[in-house]
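Much of our argument rests on the idea that a fold can be written as discrete symbols. Part of our work consisted of pairing the sequence of a single chain with a tokenised description of its backbone. No coordinates are needed to read the tokens, only the vocabulary itself. The record that follows shows the chain in one-letter code together with its fold in token form.
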Amino acid sequence: MPELPEVEAVTRRVRRMAAGARIVSAGLYRAGIAAPQNPEKIRRGTRGQRIEAVERRGKNILVFLDGGSVLRVHLRMTGNLTVIADHRLRPVTARAWFELDGGRAMILDDPRALGRITLHKTAELAKLFSNLGPEPLGPEFTPEFLARIAAASRKPIKLLLMDQRLIAGLGNIYAVEALFQAGIHPARKACRAGAGRLRALHAAIVGTLKLAIDSAIKAYELPGGFSEEEVFPAAVYGREGEACLRCRRLVRRMKQGGRSTYYCPGCQK
């Protein structure tokens, strides 16, 4: 499932390839990807519009149009927003397409058809994302902010990090990796993490995400699709039963909030 680094990599690539282009026409092959909107609203609302900017908010890709509207794209499990050289060569897994001037196309390529595209007025964005916390790579996400939300919560620290209302976009893989780098057991109550560990965790979140973004950018340039395991050097994620790279104790896995959490019982307390 695409997480913040993968979505950021897609955003940067589409920005580089599509910013400034004008949308000539659009098509949606599945009405459900626009739910609860009518696909015709998206077709009409994007036709003739120039792409002014492409940004990310949490795990959402935002394509800003010069008419004061914005396309909101969520990739879900298997989606990928990309630009192809010829709009006529759309793959069979394309669920939506936006023909650009010059013959290119921006497409939502999604084998499982779980992704979503909706069209909104730019002025609606604040309300649309009012339930999202600050970006973990943004200026509002400071060590002091992390300490404040941790002090107010008795949740396990891993579940606190995954709460999108508190921190936007931080997903399972990179929360697990940051906790390992900071030496914090994922089941430790957030309010009992300690000031020093929380400072280390803040640095680990920022560092892990920056490394993961660089890795995702490289991985999306590889032929044959994308898998985060191709490039990102995971220390514990997906390594249950393998020796920890630091202390050589075996990495363990447990369930938290319906997701798999990997950790080292020797390094994380």
About this structure: The beta strands are 23-28, 51-57, 60-65, 69-74, 80-84, 94-100, 105-109, 116-121, 252-256, 259-263.
